[in-house]
């Protein structure tokens, strides 16, 4: 079998906040087209990892390479331009703008013609299933729809890699199922996806491989079967899952 090419390489990554290491010595390789799940208890460093890869935080130490290029010191808009997009754990749409306007802003990064940008944005809105809400003000959408708008905004930049930070957080069962379908659709289209998720059912059924972070360190990295039977992971994280007692 031909192995897929490396897209993102993270080596010995570390971030210290005033002497406290939120992440330390983390190595992760992501291959083109892969769907990598990232789990770990609250405060494990998952969002900090995303913040470093997307240029919102500068690493204290370590290397981040995208397609063999060092990107650790690039600014967020540069990272976005080279093809890495993200969603935020706390959704941040422009509340007083419509769904279509929110997504069009993202497209205008690379398409200057406003009408063409709107056309591309419409496609992204349809892709996430919000076509009925094109002209709805973002702030009046329920959370499940706002999370999908956040996905459309990330997709607007036409990324190769999309990093999803708890896009299922706070969603009900139906909304979660819809979001899982959307993630699957994007993966089937060839997008490389990094998925931080506390919903273990969703994460395990979507991911091809899972990285476990715990207190800023990488505790495990393997297939879903390897992770769900790893004793250290069960003790550190899975064992404390709310569902475990049911
Ligand atoms: N800007 C910051 N300044 C200081 N400390 C920070 C900052 N950002 C994160 N931290 C700390 O770094 C650690 C990791 O936080 P992070 O948000 O990455 O965790 P997480 O795994 O995403 O958690 P959760 O599952 O709750 O979202 C925490 O101890 C947090 O308090
Ligand atoms: Mg987080």
Automatic annotation (TrEMBL):
What keywords tag this UniProt record?
Answer: ATP-binding, Nucleotide-binding, Transport
Query: Which PROSITE patterns does the record match to this protein?
Result: ABC_TRANSPORTER_2
- What's one GO-annotated cellular component? plasma membrane
Kindly list the biological process annotations in GO that this record carries. D-alanine transmembrane transport; L-alanine transport; L-isoleucine import across plasma membrane; L-valine import across plasma membrane
Q: Which domain of life is it from?
A: Bacteria
Alphabetized SMART domains for the sequence: AAA (SM00382)
**Chain ranges of the ABC transporter domain:** 8-240
Q: Which PANTHER family match?
A: AMINO ACID ABC TRANSPORTER ATP-BINDING PROTEIN, CONSERVED COMPONENT OF ABC TRANSPORTER FOR NATURAL AMINO ACIDS-RELATED
User: Under which name does UniProt file this protein?
Assistant: Amino acid/amide ABC transporter ATP-binding protein 1, HAAT family
- Native source organism of the sequence: Alteribacillus iranensis
């Amino acid at each position: 079998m031909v192995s897929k090419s490396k897209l993102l390489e993270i080596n010995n990554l570390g971030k210290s906040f005033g002497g406290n290491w939120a992440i330390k010595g983390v190595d992760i390789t992501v291959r083109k087209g892969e769907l990598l799940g990232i789990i770990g208890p609250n405060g494990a460093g998952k969002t900090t990892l995303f913040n470093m890869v997307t240029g919102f935080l500068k690493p204290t130490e370590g290397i981040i390479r995208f397609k063999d290029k060092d990107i650790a010191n690039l600014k967020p808009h540069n990272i976005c331009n080279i093809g890495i997009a993200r969603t935020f754990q706390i959704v941040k749409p422009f509340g007083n703008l419509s769904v279509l306007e929110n997504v069009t802003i993202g497209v205008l990064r690379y398409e200057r013609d406003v009408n063409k940008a709107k056309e591309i944005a419409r496609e992204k809105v349809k892709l996430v299933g919000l076509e009925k809400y094109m002209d709805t003000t973002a702030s009046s959408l329920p959370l499940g729809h706002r999370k999908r708008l956040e996905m459309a905004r990330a997709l607007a930049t036409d990324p190769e890699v999309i990093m999803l930070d708890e896009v299922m957080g706070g969603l009900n069962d139906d909304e979660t199922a819809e979001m899982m379908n959307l993630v699957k659709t994007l993966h089937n289209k060839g997008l490389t996806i990094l998925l931080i998720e506390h919903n273990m059912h969703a994460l395990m059924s979507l991911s091809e491989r899972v990285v476990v972070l715990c207190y800023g360190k990488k505790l495990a990295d393997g297939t879903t079967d390897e992770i769900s039977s790893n004793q250290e992971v069960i003790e550190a994280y899975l064992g404390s899952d709310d569902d475990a007692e049911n």
